[in-house]
Design a protein that fits this description.
Blueprint lengths: L1 H31 L6 E4 L2 E4 H4 L12 E2 L2 E2 L5 H16 L1 H25 L6 H8 L18 H6 L14 H19 L2 H10 L1 H11 L11 H18 L19 E6 L6 H6 L5 H7 L16 E6 L9
Antiparallel strand pairs: 1-2, 3-4, 5-6
Length: 321
């Protein structure tokens, strides 16, 4: 048995040496022919990493604006900060493509509400960077597309309890965000500063403007998160508006599609949402997908408040089983 083990060991060592010598010879041959050494050898083919994947510097757009307000790209600091966010968001390809897919589904509703509320359409990109257009919950318990805290939500009229949480209601939470942003615009006179205040708070921005004796977001020295905040919005806007320029290729069929819904009026107790859903030919999961603000499997509604529950039009989902 020992003799067999030694024999196998010797054979293994000879094989390793042969492979190593062969690899060295291939490297030397490549080098002598003027080829790069950073090659991947697989079978009989050599494939350069650089030939299959390239990371390139991105040209800065000639001009950028947010909500009609010009970005001073001639400022070297602003230029570098903008470049950083373009690079980060372009080369995080999977995330950027997911955002584009989701945007096709949710932007029509958000755009409609922003227009009705008199808020520039560019603020839809604020929702993108806040939540990735998902019903996200932050460690601080900010919730929904617009990442609204409980106190803020209640202050602006949202119902928030164990049974109903309207921070998850896309239309209603967009209206709350719009109200906040309009008040911030009135306070600061600038949509850009209003956007920054969504992250740092209106008092926080006001304090820094007074302390630093400036009046423009791009002149402020801010903490890491708020200092990047508007630039992240701008980068997402630029990439999503010009996807091919940044290497993203897709057809409309690749994007997530908005699903038409009918609004069903409910002003009574609903004892069991699985049974309620079945009446409309869908299951409980689909009901909650379209109404994430319903937080339980029933609706108490002792006050007989009127709610409108979204029911997807027939034919978009398989029949409930």
């Amino acid at each position: 048995m020992k003799i067999l083990k030694r024999a196998l060991l010797v054979v293994g060592l000879i094989t390793v040496c042969a492979v190593s010598i062969n690899a060295v010879q291939q490297d030397e041959e490549g080098a002598s022919n003027g080829e790069k050494k950073n090659t991947i050898t697989k079978g009989n083919s050599n494939k350069s990493v650089a030939a299959s994947y390239r990371i390139e510097a991105l040209p800065m757009p000639d001009n950028l604006e947010f909500a009609g307000e010009t970005v001073p790209l001639e400022d070297p600091d602003v230029h570098e900060r903008m470049d950083r966010e373009l690079l980060v968001n372009t080369y995080w390809q999977s995330n950027a493509l997911l955002l584009m897919k989701r945007a096709h589904k949710y932007f029509p509703l958000i755009e409609q509400v922003l227009k009705e509320e008199g808020v520039p359409e560019d603020f839809k990109y604020l929702a993108v960077i806040e939540s990735g257009l998902t019903q996200a919950v932050s460690p601080a318990r900010a919730i929904g597309f617009w990442q609204i805290m409980e106190g803020t939500g209640k202050e602006y009229g949202l119902e928030i309890n164990d049974n109903v949480d309207e921070r998850y209601h896309i239309e209603k939470s967009t209206r709350v965000a719009s109200d906040y942003l309009k008040k911030a615009k009135e306070r600061f006179g600038s949509w850009t500063l209003a956007a920054a205040s969504y992250n740092a708070g209106q008092y926080g921005i006001d304090k820094q403007l007074e302390r630093q004796k400036v009046s423009d977001y791009y002149d402020l020295l801010l903490g890491e998160e708020t200092g990047r905040y508007v630039f992240r919005i701008l980068a997402v806007k630029e990439i999503m508006n010009h996807p091919e320029k940044y290497g993203f290729n897709f057809d409309e069929d690749d994007l997530y599609q908005p699903i038409p819904v009918n609004k069903v009026k409910v002003d009574t107790v609903v004892k069991d949402f699985p049974d309620f859903a079945e009446k409309f030919g869908i299951n409980y999961k689909i009901l909650k997908v379209h109404n994430p603000w319903l937080r339980d499997d029933h609706l108490k509604n002792a006050s007989r408040k009127t709610y409108y529950i979204d029911i997807p039009e027939e034919g978009y989902y398989p029949p409930a089983k």
